[in-house]
Amino acid sequence: MAQPSSVIHFSGHQHFRNRLALSILSGKHVRIDRIRSEDKNPGLRDYEISLLRLLEKFTNGTIIEISVTGTAILLKPGVILGGTLQHDCPTSRAIGYFLEPIIMLAPFAKKPASVTLRGITTDEHDLSADILRTVTLPHLQLFGISQGLELRIKKRGAAPGGGGEIQFLCPIIKQAKTVNFIDPGKIKRIRGIAHAVRVNPQLSNRMIEASRSILNRYIPDIYLYSDVYKGDESGKSPGYALTLQAESTTSAIYCAEAISEPGVAPEDIGLKATRALLAEVEKGGCVDQKHQCLVLLMMVLGSEDVGRCRMGEPTSKTIQFLRDIRSFFATSFKIVPADTADPECTQLTYSCYGTGYVNANRTLA
């Protein structure tokens, strides 16, 4: 048993996934207590327990102790194993909830990862499979993780029934590259995927038309793709969604999506996604808000050099993540306004000195 001083303590159920991922990467034991202790239904939820099971499968030698009431947990991390595994996610959260921590860990595993997850592919709380494929994975390429990095959407699954399936393939690296990404560039193209499952395929075209009615004012290079899944590949529940991404001349990517809601016309869903994308572009920076944590983590794990990245204002989740990074890796960020000449500019430049984290789990070839 480790000495109590080496156990990092947290309270509450927020930021649960990031803390578990940081613990496994840093090798420090973590104890999280008071998990919904005041709630009528206290303790861990089914999706959090499922995530713990997934992390246990993905690593080797990890010991997880959960208290009787489920309001406290102690995690003693093992080595990140990777390899081939399958996992059924509960329908209370989408696949994105489970895949995000895996994406943080997979490049530093012992073997290249091939993870198959089944469940809901798109919901309003978590990143959808489309955003993970078209936006999250290109962010990893900034850090030299590219060859063999892939996410395949085998089946779609809308809430509440699920029934979707995705396969995530990730190579292993020795060390993350230092990133220096401070020029956001100008938007040069917009891409999008409208998908409809177990509903009239015409609905995705209606979303595309509504979205184009706004986007055509800005740039000509717009390609919105209608993705229709039939039969067994379309999951168990009806639903549709529109995922948009805008790419700049320096490969900065902004994304937004909107999911079907009962009693709301597809045109309104298309407009909602489009407005969300424009709002994201207005915030600016080189990384959009949904991916701040991933990029900051990879900067900390980079080689022993100063990494810099320009982003919008940090979300409350990002602020807490920076504090947690300081607890686990004793690394702080220097955050300064990106453009001191422009008083209107809300963008910030984040810079830190990488810890020189080397993938020690990798089998020596």
Automatic annotation (TrEMBL):
<dbReference type="InterPro" id="IPR013792">
    <property type="entry name" value="RNA3'P_cycl/enolpyr_Trfase_a/b"/>
</dbReference>
<dbReference type="InterPro" id="IPR020719">
    <property type="entry name" value="RNA3'_term_phos_cycl-like_CS"/>
</dbReference>
<dbReference type="InterPro" id="IPR037136">
    <property type="entry name" value="RNA3'_phos_cyclase_dom_sf"/>
</dbReference>
<dbReference type="InterPro" id="IPR016443">
    <property type="entry name" value="RNA3'_term_phos_cyc_type_2"/>
</dbReference>
<dbReference type="InterPro" id="IPR000228">
    <property type="entry name" value="RNA3'_term_phos_cyc"/>
</dbReference>
<keyword id="KW-0808">Transferase</keyword>
<dbReference type="GO" id="GO:0005730">
    <property type="term" value="C:nucleolus"/>
</dbReference>
<dbReference type="Pfam" id="PF01137">
    <property type="entry name" value="RTC"/>
</dbReference>
<keyword id="KW-0690">Ribosome biogenesis</keyword>
<comment type="similarity">
    <text>Belongs to the RNA 3'-terminal cyclase family. Type 2 subfamily.</text>
</comment>
<keyword id="KW-0539">Nucleus</keyword>
<dbReference type="GO" id="GO:0016740">
    <property type="term" value="F:transferase activity"/>
</dbReference>
<dbReference type="InterPro" id="IPR023797">
    <property type="entry name" value="RNA3'_phos_cyclase_dom"/>
</dbReference>
<dbReference type="GO" id="GO:0004521">
    <property type="term" value="F:RNA endonuclease activity"/>
</dbReference>
<dbReference type="Pfam" id="PF05189">
    <property type="entry name" value="RTC_insert"/>
</dbReference>
<dbReference type="InterPro" id="IPR013791">
    <property type="entry name" value="RNA3'-term_phos_cycl_insert"/>
</dbReference>
<feature type="domain" description="RNA 3'-terminal phosphate cyclase insert">
    <location>
        <begin position="183"/>
        <end position="281"/>
    </location>
</feature>
<feature type="domain" description="RNA 3'-terminal phosphate cyclase">
    <location>
        <begin position="9"/>
        <end position="335"/>
    </location>
</feature>
<protein>
    <submittedName>
        <fullName>RNA 3'-terminal phosphate cyclase/enolpyruvate transferase</fullName>
    </submittedName>
</protein>
<dbReference type="InterPro" id="IPR036553">
    <property type="entry name" value="RPTC_insert"/>
</dbReference>
<dbReference type="GO" id="GO:0000479">
    <property type="term" value="P:endonucleolytic cleavage of tricistronic rRNA transcript (SSU-rRNA, 5.8S rRNA, LSU-rRNA)"/>
</dbReference>
